[in-house]
Amino acid sequence: MRLLFAVVAVFLAVPAMCAFAAVPPLLPMEDFFRNPTNAAFSISPDGTKLAFARPWEYRMNVYVRDIATGTEKRITSATERDIAGFFWKGSGKIVYAQDSGGDENFHVYITDIDGTNVKDLTPFEKVKAGVLDDLEDSPIHMLLEMNRRNPEIFDVYRCNILTGELELLAENPGNITGWMTDHDGKLRVAVQTDGVNETLLYRTNESQDFHELMTLNFKETFSPMMFAYDNKMMYVASNLSTDKAAIYTYDPETNKTLDLIFAHDEVDAGSLMHSKKRKIITAVTYTTDRRHYKFFDSEREELQKKLDEFFPGVEAVVADMDDDERKIIVRTYSDRTRGAYYLFDRKDESMSKLADLSPWLKADQMAPMKAITFTARDGLTIHGYITLPVGVEAKNLPLVVIPHGGPSARDGWGFDSEAQFLANRGIAVLQVNFRGSTGYGKSFWLSGFKQWGRKMQDDVTDGVQWAVNEGIADKSRLAIYGGSYGGYSALAGATFTPYLYACAVSYVGPSNLFTLLESIPPYWKPFLDMEYEMIGDPVKDKDLLTEISPVFHAENIRIPLFIAQGANDPRVNKAESEQIVDAVKRTGKDVVYMLKENEGHGFHNEENRFDFYRELEEFFRKHLGSR
User: Fold this and answer.
1) 247 has pLDDT over 80
2) What is the pLDDT of residues 6-56, one digit of tens each?
3) pLDDT score of 8
4) Which residues sit opposite 248 in a β-bridge?
């Protein structure tokens, strides 16, 4: 199955900057947050055309380019909202997704590659739709998922892309949270939940009913990744016998886990890479300080060696291939550059540049991102990254810690626009993979359960203290800023460690965990009991949620606060921001509040990003004395 929507998102001593490194010029804020020149390149299955995203009327739209002639045509005309993602359907059509004002109720559209015959395949209000399988071997059908019948669950439909006709293929009985097809596009696997236990369902063919294979608590992992190319065996990620998730082969007919494919002692296994043409798996990825590969196939390993030789000093990844696996889209990047897209022809080994993403940003003016570790107060090892300004001594700097969202996620090595923007302003940036982050094994993830505002927050605090003890950060010029869960962490930092930070910024962050859990999108309801175990039950853990919800402790906030929110956010309702703003104002303190009426969970429209980061820059200049 081809990639579907191409999206348009060991202790290392920190060295002092070299004395001869020049302080880079103060670059315009807009340069860090402008739309890229071009992005998300993908190649048609027949290898003759490219699809990519490019700004038009300040929105990212889809273009198609003929490789032989170089002629281009814009095929979408979005003016209110960026095209969220797109992929090829055959070599003559493009499928793309778009929501309205950030509500995340995505519609699935299809158009011919000349921009004609545009169809909304899911023209339903307040319905969230997505593509389950593009059925690349079928010229006229795809499989879609929609919560049209019931907003809490997703049914599977077979869609005729020519007529728009929808045929209900699988009706969700009310407890299925995921579906999976085989390489022939047959619906063979489902996952159901009772709230905290997940059951793996399977059938040999679509004429059969699903039957149960195993039931596990959601704290354990046994996740089908893909069928083997015989459509019988499966590859699964499992941590049932180990702390770190490893990849195995699995026989669903006998319900037996078979051979270990890959495991790592320090981190979970990542994604599987495979060749449809040769019908084999080729490699697995895993992430320690940065992404690495374990190759199973000499041909794919040799390809990577060639790409690394072409692009020394940066990461070179395969973004897409044509069906012959001859023409390859290559994406380069590093911690100091957003990089570029290239087209590589394996037959004649020619490499041609397609586009730099942000040519106005020069790598030698950007700051390196260094992996770090430190020991939390209870002895747990915590990993993270620090980005230091170029051309100045790494001593007594203003510092902003940016806890990541999720919180079941992690930060990784690579170009980070926010970190580079702040470093250009003379600010050190710390990113902490606190307990509860994913990728570091089951125990590390579970250690974050019911630790919002507690040990998870202590890890962030301990990271900041590490930077102070190392002499990097000036203890009088510390700030905390984050989005989503990171926004909660920023509010928790301002509330529960009020004398640590000089200021705090919460971006689409929850302030009241009771109302957060009450106002989740309907399609998250099947996971609500899991959220209760991870965060806290509003009834059983009432005292806990009251203790760790910043809105109930606003009188503790003594530092300047900046809140930003999207009015249409389906995940963190705008009431989350309004509650804390009102609570702080009732204490007699001022708070900067930015509300964007045409945004959701984060600001995606370019002009809104500019407004936010312009205010952020001024806020940090005023309260941290940044450059």
Assistant:
1) yes
2) 444 332 333 333 334 789 999 999 999 999 999 999 999 999 999 999 999
3) 45
4) 236, 260
CA dihedral 67, 68, 73, 76 (to 10 degrees): -30
Reported as a pLDDT band with limits 50, 70 and 90, residue 626 is confident
Using a 10 angstrom Cβ sphere, with 0-12 exposed, 13-18 middle and 19 or more buried, the burial of residue 114 is exposed
Contact 440, 433 (CB under 8 A): yes
On the question of a cis peptide bond just before residue 407, with omega within 30 degrees of 0, the verdict is yes
Determine contact, residues 83/98, Cβ cutoff 8 Å: yes
Tokens of 56: 């038009």
Is the per-residue pLDDT at 607 higher than 90? yes
Residue the block writes with tokens 């209760």: 532
DSSP string covering 449-470, please?
A: TT-TTTHHHHHHHHHHHHHHHT
Using alpha carbons only, what angle is made at residue 90 by residues 9 and 185, rounded to the nearest 5 degrees?
A: 85
Q: Quick one: angle between helices 485-496 and 455-469, nearest 10?
A: 70
The alpha carbon of residue 482 and the mean position of all alpha carbons in its chain are separated, in whole angstroms, by 15
Helix (H) or strand (E) holding 422: helix 417-424
- CA 51-54-58 angle, to 5 degrees, is 150
CA 236 to CA 250: how far, in whole Å? 7
From CA 46, how far away is CA 623, in angstroms rounded? 56
Give the integer Cα–Cα distance in Å for 19 and 380. 35
Contact 242, 263 (CB under 8 A): yes
Q: How far is CA 267 from the centre of its chain?
A: 18
Q: Residues with catalytic annotation? A: 484, 569, 601
With CA atoms as reference, report the closest residue to 485 among 459, 462, 523, 467: 459
| Terminal-residue alpha carbon distance, the chain | 49
Separation CA 481–CA 461 (nearest Å): 13
How far apart (Å, rounded) are the C-alpha atoms in residues 129 and 107?
A: 6
What is the per-residue pLDDT across 163-190, written as a single tens digit (0 to 9) for each? 999 999 999 999 999 999 999 999 999 9
Distance (Å, whole) CA 186 – CA 156: 12
Q: 3-state secondary structure string, 119-141? A: EECCCCCCCCEEEEECCCCCCCE
Q: Which fold has domain 367-624?
A: Rossmann fold (3.40.50)
Residues 522-555 have pLDDT tens digits of 999 999 999 999 999 999 999 999 999 999 999 9
Using CA atoms, how far apart are residues 344 and 353, in angstroms rounded to an integer? 9
d(CA 443, CA 152): 30
Cα separation values, 124 from 101, 108, 129, 148, 252, Å: 16, 10, 9, 8, 37
pLDDT at 18: 38
249-281 pLDDT, tens digit per residue, is 999 999 999 999 999 999 999 999 999 999 999
- Residues 132 and 125: their CA atoms lie apart, in Å, by 20
Q: Name all contacts of 261-264 with Cβ < 8 Å and 24+ positions apart.
A: 261/235, 261/296, 262/286, 262/294, 264/288
Percent of the chain scoring above 90 in pLDDT = 96
Strands in 376-447 per DSSP E? 381-387, 397-401, 428-433
Tokens of 589: 């303190």
Phi, psi angles (nearest 5°) of residue 204: -75, -35
Beta carbons of 588 and 521 less than 8 angstroms apart: no
Are the CB atoms for 389 and 426 separated by under 8 Å?
Answer: yes
